[in-house]
Amino acid sequence: MTQAELERAICKRTGLPDSVVALVLTTLKDLISESLERQQDVVFRGLFRISSRVREINSFQTAVGSNEPKRATAYKLVLGIHPVPAFRKELNKWTSTLSSSMTNT
Fold first, then answer.
1. What is the average per-residue pLDDT within 13-38?
2. Which of 36, 71, 74, 75 is the most buried (most CB within 10 A)?
3. Measured distance CA(94)–CA(79) in Å, rounded
4. What's 2-66 look like in SS3?
């Protein structure tokens, strides 16, 4: 589901104007991004948790004209999405229903 589709669905369910829903979703996206940049977990209670951490990546590079490798360190932001157990159980039900319906056709 794209942001535009989500906006339309929320407008339809709530009756709120498009501009208000767009502003709320954009603000939510910005707040989530800022929290993850600060390596703070984002929790949607009853659904999932998004965690972030910075991983150090070490590599060795050899300079041109030198036989001695130099150590270089880079940093990578790693995100993890973890469904809560109750939601994971629901997801498993959906996927098992989907896979069984696909094998029956």
1. 95
2. 36
3. 24
4. CHHHHHHHHHHHHCCCHHHHHHHHHHHHHHHHHHHHCCCCEEECCCEEEEEEEEEEEEEEECCCC
